[in-house]
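The authors assume throughout that readers already know how a fold can be written as discrete tokens. The format is easy to grasp once an entry is in front of the reader. For illustration, here is how one protein appears when written out as sequence plus structure tokens:
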Amino acid sequence: MKRYLDDRIRQDLQRKMVVLTGPRQVGKTTLSQQLMGEWPDSQYLNFDVAAHRAIILTQSWRQSAPLLVFDEVHKMRDWKTWLKGVYDGRAPGQQILVTGSARMDTFRQSGDSLAGRYFRLRLHPLSVREWSQQLRVAPHPALTHLLARGGFPEPALTNTDTDAQRWRTDYFAGLVREDVLEFSRLHEVNAMRLFAEMLRARVGSPLSLASLGRDLNLSSVTLSKYLDILEALFVVFVVRPWHRNIARSTLQAPKVYFYDTALVLGDDGVRFENLVACHLLKLAQWQQDTRGMAVDLHYLRTKDGAEVDFALNDGDTLTHLVECKLSDAKPHRALTRFAEQWPQAHAVQLVRECKAEADFGCIQLRDAAPWLAALEV
């Protein structure tokens, strides 16, 4: 399956090393192997595989390989210094693709900087646009399918819901059991698992770590660390309230969403909101990674409780206001209020079951499926 980053990676490899990150099993290895097929004699090396690790440590890969793919090398001590040396000493014309299932900036190790030597790209789960194009289906059935299966390729493509659920159970358990140990101690795994399970039922709501800490008998400081780990492993992402003062926004309650929409424990409205959040984050990070734009995903909330689900900003300017509804054909009151306050922002109310699109002043009421399918990625 062709992914939305395929062409971009090809272009960027002509100029620099490419560092591709994203959730485990989101399709990074498959994408890498497809690219390798275009360059005969390319070589793939995974630091988690003992035989590959020996080759990586001794740097005994084929010097004639036109493309080298290094997977999970961030688990190696002083990997940044090592990678800088490999890149600077590579054979003429040799291209390097580095992949990993954890945020590379999380591993803050000493050593020389890689600045100026690589392009960063982040691979996300399948979107309505990708599913519609690749499977040649209309946006509405694509949206329905992704709400049920999530956007990870294997469960999305499998034949039965049972197989998809079996994959998801193993995936979630494996993340907590194995990957978490890269960041924390063994005795924390059970607490992390319980915390992650509790987050599944709190998607889309302002998160109180103090309240969760009382339930788990853990401090909010500890839970904040756990949340950072789950973010670093691309299990969840945090959406914070928008404020021109960054310090003030970080002090307010965040919302948490899962990269895998099918992991969400909630009603249809919550799962729909999570899916929209995934699409907007994917769009924002695409614009960050490929254009260098200062785009971020937030939500809006005032002290009197008025709230809009999502806001995209480009620096100090709000560009989009997005409210998610299952079937409401009336403009959301808070969306109207914020649209008047920030008239430069594109204000849209996405409706999952939309009978008729309409404009109410500066508010656009739009059918969610075709609107999502029209996004860049």
User: Anything to note?
Assistant: The first helix runs from residue 6 to 13. Residues 107-111 have pLDDT under 50 and may be disordered.
